[in-house]
Amino acid sequence: QQQQQQRQGGVEYHLPPLAPNQTMDARRRRPNGQGVVGRDRRKSLDRRSTASFDGASRLRDLNGRLAELAADQNGSRHIQHCIETASPSEMLDALGELQPTLYNVMVDVFGNYVIQKLLRFGDASVKETIVRQMRGRIPELSINNFGCRVVQEVLATVTSADLRREVLEELEEGDVQRLIMHQHANHVIQKCVTTLPKNLLGFIIQVCQENATQMACHLYGCRVIQRLIEQCDPQQLATLYENVLLDCESLTRDAYGNYVVQHIISHGHPEHRTVVMDFIRGNVMEMSKHKFASNVVEKFLHHATIEQLSDLIAEVCMRINLPDGTTTAPLHVMMKDKFANYVVQTMLECAPCEAQYALLEYITANSEVLRTYNYGKHIVSKAEKILTSMKR
Known about the structure:
By secondary structure, the protein is an all-alpha fold. It has helices spanning 2-6, 24-27, 39-52, 66-70, 73-83, 88-98, 102-106, 111-121, 124-134, 138-142, 147-157, 161-173, 176-180, 185-195, 202-210, 212-216, 221-231, 238-246, 248-251, 257-267, 270-280, 284-288, 293-303, 306-317, 330-334, 340-350, 353-365, 367-370, 376-391; strands spanning 320-321, 327-328. A two-stranded antiparallel sheet has the order 1-2. The longest helix has 16 residues, at 376-391. It is elongated.
Protein backbone atom coordinates (compact mmCIF):
# COMPACT_ATOMS: atom_id res chain seq x y z
CA GLN A 1 0.00 0.00 0.00
CA GLN A 2 2.88 2.37 0.81
CA GLN A 3 4.46 1.69 -2.59
CA GLN A 4 1.10 2.35 -4.24
CA GLN A 5 0.72 5.69 -2.44
CA GLN A 6 4.23 6.73 -3.47
CA ARG A 7 3.38 6.24 -7.13
CA GLN A 8 0.46 8.67 -7.04
CA GLY A 9 1.04 11.90 -8.93
CA GLY A 10 -1.82 13.89 -7.43
CA VAL A 11 -4.89 13.57 -5.32
CA GLU A 12 -7.08 12.65 -8.31
CA TYR A 13 -5.07 9.62 -9.46
CA HIS A 14 -5.20 6.13 -8.01
CA LEU A 15 -3.21 3.22 -9.37
CA PRO A 16 -5.13 0.08 -10.29
CA PRO A 17 -4.29 -3.04 -8.29
CA LEU A 18 -1.46 -5.24 -9.57
CA ALA A 19 -2.61 -7.79 -12.10
CA PRO A 20 -1.82 -11.46 -11.44
CA ASN A 21 1.92 -12.11 -11.92
CA GLN A 22 2.57 -8.36 -12.41
CA THR A 23 5.55 -6.90 -10.61
CA MET A 24 6.06 -3.34 -9.47
CA ASP A 25 8.67 -2.98 -12.22
CA ALA A 26 6.01 -3.85 -14.77
CA ARG A 27 3.82 -1.11 -13.36
CA ARG A 28 6.70 1.37 -13.69
CA ARG A 29 6.70 0.99 -17.47
CA ARG A 30 6.32 4.42 -18.95
CA PRO A 31 3.07 5.17 -20.80
CA ASN A 32 5.01 6.24 -23.90
CA GLY A 33 6.70 2.86 -24.19
CA GLN A 34 10.20 3.97 -23.19
CA GLY A 35 10.68 0.99 -20.92
CA VAL A 36 11.09 0.43 -17.21
CA VAL A 37 12.38 3.20 -14.99
CA GLY A 38 14.99 1.67 -12.72
CA ARG A 39 14.57 1.75 -8.92
CA ASP A 40 18.06 3.10 -8.33
CA ARG A 41 17.63 5.96 -10.80
CA ARG A 42 14.23 6.85 -9.32
CA LYS A 43 15.54 6.88 -5.75
CA SER A 44 18.60 8.89 -6.78
CA LEU A 45 16.40 11.48 -8.49
CA ASP A 46 14.16 11.69 -5.42
CA ARG A 47 17.14 12.38 -3.13
CA ARG A 48 18.76 14.88 -5.48
CA SER A 49 15.57 16.80 -6.28
CA THR A 50 14.34 16.85 -2.70
CA ALA A 51 17.66 18.19 -1.45
CA SER A 52 17.46 21.16 -3.83
CA PHE A 53 13.82 22.05 -3.15
CA ASP A 54 13.05 25.18 -1.18
CA GLY A 55 9.66 26.60 -0.34
CA ALA A 56 10.74 29.92 -1.82
CA SER A 57 11.89 28.41 -5.15
CA ARG A 58 10.56 30.00 -8.31
CA LEU A 59 9.68 28.11 -11.46
CA ARG A 60 12.65 29.69 -13.21
CA ASP A 61 14.96 28.13 -10.60
CA LEU A 62 14.09 24.70 -11.99
CA ASN A 63 15.03 25.51 -15.58
CA GLY A 64 17.29 22.93 -17.15
CA ARG A 65 15.74 19.88 -15.54
CA LEU A 66 12.00 20.42 -15.81
CA ALA A 67 11.40 17.36 -17.99
CA GLU A 68 13.27 15.13 -15.55
CA LEU A 69 11.51 16.55 -12.49
CA ALA A 70 8.06 16.43 -14.13
CA ALA A 71 8.41 12.64 -14.45
CA ASP A 72 9.14 12.31 -10.72
CA GLN A 73 6.52 12.30 -7.99
CA ASN A 74 8.21 14.85 -5.72
CA GLY A 75 9.49 16.83 -8.68
CA SER A 76 6.05 17.05 -10.24
CA ARG A 77 4.50 18.26 -7.03
CA HIS A 78 7.17 20.90 -6.53
CA ILE A 79 6.78 22.18 -10.09
CA GLN A 80 3.02 22.42 -9.52
CA HIS A 81 3.65 24.41 -6.34
CA CYS A 82 5.96 26.80 -8.19
CA ILE A 83 3.47 27.28 -11.01
CA GLU A 84 0.96 28.76 -8.59
CA THR A 85 3.21 31.82 -8.08
CA ALA A 86 4.91 31.90 -11.47
CA SER A 87 4.52 34.72 -13.96
CA PRO A 88 3.22 34.07 -17.50
CA SER A 89 6.75 34.64 -18.86
CA GLU A 90 8.15 31.99 -16.51
CA MET A 91 5.47 29.55 -17.63
CA LEU A 92 6.20 30.23 -21.28
CA ASP A 93 9.93 29.69 -20.66
CA ALA A 94 9.12 26.38 -18.97
CA LEU A 95 6.97 25.31 -21.92
CA GLY A 96 9.78 26.28 -24.28
CA GLU A 97 12.14 23.98 -22.38
CA LEU A 98 9.58 21.16 -22.32
CA GLN A 99 8.61 21.53 -25.98
CA PRO A 100 10.75 18.65 -27.36
CA THR A 101 9.24 16.20 -24.86
CA LEU A 102 5.91 17.89 -24.15
CA TYR A 103 3.82 15.00 -25.44
CA ASN A 104 5.70 12.57 -23.20
CA VAL A 105 5.06 14.88 -20.24
CA MET A 106 1.34 14.99 -21.07
CA VAL A 107 1.03 11.20 -21.04
CA ASP A 108 3.23 10.72 -17.98
CA VAL A 109 1.74 9.50 -14.70
CA PHE A 110 3.17 12.54 -12.90
CA GLY A 111 3.90 14.94 -15.74
CA ASN A 112 0.26 15.31 -16.80
CA TYR A 113 -0.45 17.16 -13.53
CA VAL A 114 2.18 19.76 -14.43
CA ILE A 115 0.43 20.53 -17.72
CA GLN A 116 -2.96 20.65 -16.01
CA LYS A 117 -1.57 23.12 -13.50
CA LEU A 118 -0.20 25.33 -16.27
CA LEU A 119 -3.62 25.35 -17.89
CA ARG A 120 -5.32 26.32 -14.65
CA PHE A 121 -2.91 29.11 -13.65
CA GLY A 122 -1.60 30.25 -17.03
CA ASP A 123 -2.95 33.16 -19.02
CA ALA A 124 -4.29 33.05 -22.57
CA SER A 125 -0.80 32.89 -24.08
CA VAL A 126 0.15 29.89 -21.95
CA LYS A 127 -3.06 28.06 -22.84
CA GLU A 128 -2.56 28.82 -26.54
CA THR A 129 1.02 27.52 -26.45
CA ILE A 130 -0.11 24.23 -24.90
CA VAL A 131 -2.99 23.72 -27.33
CA ARG A 132 -0.74 24.47 -30.31
CA GLN A 133 1.67 21.80 -29.12
CA MET A 134 -1.23 19.32 -28.93
CA ARG A 135 -2.21 20.00 -32.54
CA GLY A 136 -2.66 16.80 -34.54
CA ARG A 137 -2.58 14.56 -31.45
CA ILE A 138 -5.87 15.31 -29.67
CA PRO A 139 -7.50 11.91 -30.41
CA GLU A 140 -4.24 10.15 -29.52
CA LEU A 141 -4.07 12.00 -26.20
CA SER A 142 -7.75 11.33 -25.56
CA ILE A 143 -7.31 7.54 -25.56
CA ASN A 144 -4.34 7.73 -23.21
CA ASN A 145 -4.89 7.11 -19.51
CA PHE A 146 -3.12 10.35 -18.53
CA GLY A 147 -3.31 12.36 -21.74
CA CYS A 148 -7.12 12.35 -21.60
CA ARG A 149 -6.89 14.39 -18.39
CA VAL A 150 -4.93 17.09 -20.16
CA VAL A 151 -7.51 17.26 -22.96
CA GLN A 152 -10.29 17.51 -20.38
CA GLU A 153 -8.46 20.35 -18.66
CA VAL A 154 -8.12 22.16 -21.98
CA LEU A 155 -11.87 21.90 -22.52
CA ALA A 156 -12.54 23.13 -18.98
CA THR A 157 -10.11 26.07 -18.91
CA VAL A 158 -9.58 27.34 -22.47
CA THR A 159 -12.13 30.01 -23.35
CA SER A 160 -10.81 31.02 -26.77
CA ALA A 161 -13.39 30.09 -29.39
CA ASP A 162 -10.67 29.49 -31.99
CA LEU A 163 -8.69 27.11 -29.78
CA ARG A 164 -11.81 25.21 -28.75
CA ARG A 165 -12.76 24.89 -32.40
CA GLU A 166 -9.35 23.39 -33.18
CA VAL A 167 -9.78 20.76 -30.45
CA LEU A 168 -13.32 19.92 -31.56
CA GLU A 169 -12.35 19.67 -35.21
CA GLU A 170 -9.71 17.06 -34.40
CA LEU A 171 -12.18 15.08 -32.30
CA GLU A 172 -14.83 15.32 -35.00
CA GLU A 173 -12.42 14.19 -37.71
CA GLY A 174 -11.48 11.14 -35.66
CA ASP A 175 -13.53 8.03 -34.98
CA VAL A 176 -16.11 9.62 -32.69
CA GLN A 177 -17.89 6.34 -31.99
CA ARG A 178 -14.63 4.76 -30.88
CA LEU A 179 -13.88 7.73 -28.64
CA ILE A 180 -17.32 7.55 -27.03
CA MET A 181 -16.90 3.86 -26.27
CA HIS A 182 -13.28 4.10 -25.11
CA GLN A 183 -12.54 3.77 -21.39
CA HIS A 184 -10.46 6.96 -21.32
CA ALA A 185 -11.67 9.00 -24.29
CA ASN A 186 -15.29 8.83 -23.16
CA HIS A 187 -14.37 11.23 -20.35
CA VAL A 188 -13.16 13.71 -22.96
CA ILE A 189 -16.46 13.44 -24.85
CA GLN A 190 -18.40 13.88 -21.61
CA LYS A 191 -16.35 16.98 -20.84
CA CYS A 192 -17.25 18.35 -24.28
CA VAL A 193 -20.92 17.89 -23.45
CA THR A 194 -20.71 19.52 -20.02
CA THR A 195 -18.47 22.48 -20.90
CA LEU A 196 -19.16 23.49 -24.51
CA PRO A 197 -22.13 25.38 -25.97
CA LYS A 198 -24.95 23.09 -27.04
CA ASN A 199 -24.72 24.18 -30.66
CA LEU A 200 -21.23 22.63 -30.92
CA LEU A 201 -22.35 19.15 -29.85
CA GLY A 202 -23.94 18.09 -33.12
CA PHE A 203 -21.22 15.60 -34.07
CA ILE A 204 -21.65 13.76 -30.75
CA ILE A 205 -25.45 13.79 -30.94
CA GLN A 206 -25.39 12.44 -34.50
CA VAL A 207 -23.23 9.43 -33.61
CA CYS A 208 -25.35 8.64 -30.56
CA GLN A 209 -28.67 8.86 -32.36
CA GLU A 210 -27.42 6.72 -35.25
CA ASN A 211 -26.27 4.01 -32.82
CA ALA A 212 -28.75 4.64 -30.02
CA THR A 213 -29.30 1.08 -28.76
CA GLN A 214 -25.65 0.09 -29.06
CA MET A 215 -24.53 3.20 -27.21
CA ALA A 216 -27.21 2.93 -24.53
CA CYS A 217 -26.21 -0.67 -23.77
CA HIS A 218 -22.50 0.17 -23.55
CA LEU A 219 -20.66 0.84 -20.28
CA TYR A 220 -19.21 4.12 -21.55
CA GLY A 221 -21.68 4.96 -24.29
CA CYS A 222 -24.56 5.13 -21.83
CA ARG A 223 -22.68 7.77 -19.83
CA VAL A 224 -22.28 10.03 -22.84
CA ILE A 225 -25.99 9.73 -23.67
CA GLN A 226 -26.88 10.56 -20.06
CA ARG A 227 -24.72 13.69 -20.17
CA LEU A 228 -26.43 14.74 -23.42
CA ILE A 229 -29.86 14.24 -21.88
CA GLU A 230 -28.83 16.32 -18.87
CA GLN A 231 -27.33 19.19 -20.86
CA CYS A 232 -29.43 19.45 -24.03
CA ASP A 233 -33.06 20.34 -24.63
CA PRO A 234 -35.34 17.44 -25.59
CA GLN A 235 -36.04 19.22 -28.90
CA GLN A 236 -32.33 19.04 -29.77
CA LEU A 237 -32.34 15.32 -28.96
CA ALA A 238 -35.68 14.49 -30.56
CA THR A 239 -34.25 11.79 -32.85
CA LEU A 240 -32.10 10.31 -30.07
CA TYR A 241 -35.12 10.12 -27.73
CA GLU A 242 -37.19 8.51 -30.46
CA ASN A 243 -34.56 5.88 -31.29
CA VAL A 244 -33.98 5.00 -27.65
CA LEU A 245 -37.69 4.68 -26.89
CA LEU A 246 -38.20 2.46 -29.93
CA ASP A 247 -36.16 -0.15 -28.06
CA CYS A 248 -37.47 0.81 -24.62
CA GLU A 249 -38.59 -2.69 -23.67
CA SER A 250 -35.15 -4.28 -24.02
CA LEU A 251 -33.25 -1.25 -22.68
CA THR A 252 -35.20 -1.26 -19.42
CA ARG A 253 -33.84 -4.75 -18.78
CA ASP A 254 -30.25 -3.91 -19.71
CA ALA A 255 -27.56 -3.27 -17.10
CA TYR A 256 -26.65 0.07 -18.72
CA GLY A 257 -29.62 0.86 -20.92
CA ASN A 258 -31.95 1.17 -17.93
CA TYR A 259 -30.04 4.28 -16.82
CA VAL A 260 -30.65 5.94 -20.17
CA VAL A 261 -34.39 5.24 -19.93
CA GLN A 262 -34.40 6.61 -16.38
CA HIS A 263 -32.74 9.80 -17.60
CA ILE A 264 -35.38 10.21 -20.31
CA ILE A 265 -38.07 9.84 -17.63
CA SER A 266 -36.37 12.50 -15.48
CA HIS A 267 -35.43 15.02 -18.18
CA GLY A 268 -37.83 14.31 -21.03
CA HIS A 269 -41.23 15.76 -21.85
CA PRO A 270 -44.58 14.25 -20.75
CA GLU A 271 -44.97 12.60 -24.15
CA HIS A 272 -41.72 10.68 -23.58
CA ARG A 273 -42.98 9.45 -20.21
CA THR A 274 -46.21 8.39 -21.91
CA VAL A 275 -44.22 6.10 -24.20
CA VAL A 276 -42.51 4.53 -21.17
CA MET A 277 -45.91 4.19 -19.46
CA ASP A 278 -47.18 2.18 -22.41
CA PHE A 279 -44.37 -0.35 -21.86
CA ILE A 280 -44.92 -0.56 -18.11
CA ARG A 281 -48.71 -0.84 -18.23
CA GLY A 282 -49.67 -4.50 -18.17
CA ASN A 283 -46.15 -5.54 -17.13
CA VAL A 284 -45.77 -3.94 -13.70
CA MET A 285 -45.19 -7.18 -11.79
CA GLU A 286 -42.79 -8.69 -14.33
CA MET A 287 -40.74 -5.51 -14.66
CA SER A 288 -40.72 -4.92 -10.89
CA LYS A 289 -39.24 -8.37 -10.28
CA HIS A 290 -36.40 -7.67 -12.71
CA LYS A 291 -33.10 -6.38 -11.29
CA PHE A 292 -32.75 -3.50 -13.77
CA ALA A 293 -36.29 -2.90 -15.01
CA SER A 294 -37.45 -2.40 -11.40
CA ASN A 295 -35.28 0.73 -11.25
CA VAL A 296 -37.09 2.12 -14.29
CA VAL A 297 -40.48 1.43 -12.69
CA GLU A 298 -39.43 3.22 -9.49
CA LYS A 299 -38.13 6.22 -11.42
CA PHE A 300 -41.36 6.39 -13.41
CA LEU A 301 -43.48 6.34 -10.24
CA HIS A 302 -41.65 9.44 -9.00
CA HIS A 303 -42.50 11.32 -12.22
CA ALA A 304 -45.92 9.85 -13.08
CA THR A 305 -49.13 11.81 -13.14
CA ILE A 306 -51.89 11.02 -10.62
CA GLU A 307 -53.84 9.20 -13.32
CA GLN A 308 -50.82 7.09 -14.28
CA LEU A 309 -50.10 6.24 -10.65
CA SER A 310 -53.70 5.23 -10.07
CA ASP A 311 -53.69 2.99 -13.14
CA LEU A 312 -50.47 1.19 -12.13
CA ILE A 313 -51.57 0.69 -8.54
CA ALA A 314 -54.95 -0.61 -9.70
CA GLU A 315 -53.11 -3.10 -11.92
CA VAL A 316 -51.11 -4.60 -9.04
CA CYS A 317 -54.19 -4.81 -6.79
CA MET A 318 -56.27 -6.74 -9.34
CA ARG A 319 -56.39 -10.48 -8.73
CA ILE A 320 -54.85 -12.63 -11.48
CA ASN A 321 -54.32 -16.32 -12.17
CA LEU A 322 -50.73 -17.41 -11.49
CA PRO A 323 -48.93 -20.22 -13.39
CA ASP A 324 -49.28 -22.54 -10.38
CA GLY A 325 -53.07 -22.33 -10.63
CA THR A 326 -53.59 -20.03 -7.65
CA THR A 327 -55.27 -16.66 -7.76
CA THR A 328 -53.80 -13.59 -6.07
CA ALA A 329 -53.03 -9.95 -6.57
CA PRO A 330 -49.64 -9.07 -8.14
CA LEU A 331 -49.11 -6.82 -5.12
CA HIS A 332 -48.86 -9.87 -2.85
CA VAL A 333 -46.21 -11.45 -5.08
CA MET A 334 -44.27 -8.20 -5.36
CA MET A 335 -44.12 -7.66 -1.61
CA LYS A 336 -42.19 -10.93 -1.24
CA ASP A 337 -39.74 -10.28 -4.08
CA LYS A 338 -36.20 -9.00 -3.50
CA PHE A 339 -36.53 -6.31 -6.19
CA ALA A 340 -40.28 -5.71 -6.46
CA ASN A 341 -40.64 -4.93 -2.77
CA TYR A 342 -38.81 -1.65 -3.38
CA VAL A 343 -41.33 -0.78 -6.09
CA VAL A 344 -44.15 -1.35 -3.60
CA GLN A 345 -42.40 0.94 -1.10
CA THR A 346 -42.13 3.63 -3.77
CA MET A 347 -45.80 3.18 -4.59
CA LEU A 348 -46.62 3.83 -0.93
CA GLU A 349 -44.60 7.06 -1.06
CA CYS A 350 -45.96 8.37 -4.35
CA ALA A 351 -49.55 7.11 -4.39
CA PRO A 352 -52.42 9.61 -4.32
CA CYS A 353 -54.44 9.55 -1.09
CA GLU A 354 -57.17 7.12 -2.11
CA ALA A 355 -54.74 4.61 -3.62
CA GLN A 356 -52.37 4.98 -0.66
CA TYR A 357 -55.18 4.13 1.78
CA ALA A 358 -56.01 1.03 -0.27
CA LEU A 359 -52.38 -0.11 -0.19
CA LEU A 360 -52.04 0.52 3.54
CA GLU A 361 -55.25 -1.35 4.24
CA TYR A 362 -54.09 -4.37 2.26
CA ILE A 363 -50.67 -4.40 3.95
CA THR A 364 -52.11 -4.00 7.43
CA ALA A 365 -54.57 -6.84 6.86
CA ASN A 366 -51.74 -9.15 5.75
CA SER A 367 -49.01 -7.86 8.07
CA GLU A 368 -48.64 -11.10 10.04
CA VAL A 369 -48.05 -13.13 6.89
CA LEU A 370 -45.74 -10.50 5.39
CA ARG A 371 -43.56 -10.46 8.51
CA THR A 372 -42.62 -14.08 7.82
CA TYR A 373 -40.92 -13.07 4.57
CA ASN A 374 -37.50 -11.39 4.42
CA TYR A 375 -38.66 -8.64 2.08
CA GLY A 376 -42.23 -8.44 3.36
CA LYS A 377 -40.90 -7.12 6.65
CA HIS A 378 -39.59 -4.03 4.85
CA ILE A 379 -43.06 -3.34 3.43
CA VAL A 380 -44.72 -3.63 6.82
CA SER A 381 -42.13 -1.33 8.38
CA LYS A 382 -42.65 1.25 5.62
CA ALA A 383 -46.42 1.12 6.03
CA GLU A 384 -46.18 1.56 9.81
CA LYS A 385 -43.99 4.67 9.38
CA ILE A 386 -46.50 6.20 6.99
CA LEU A 387 -49.41 5.44 9.33
CA THR A 388 -47.51 6.96 12.26
CA SER A 389 -46.81 10.13 10.30
CA MET A 390 -50.51 10.37 9.37
CA LYS A 391 -51.56 10.25 13.01
CA ARG A 392 -49.29 13.17 13.79
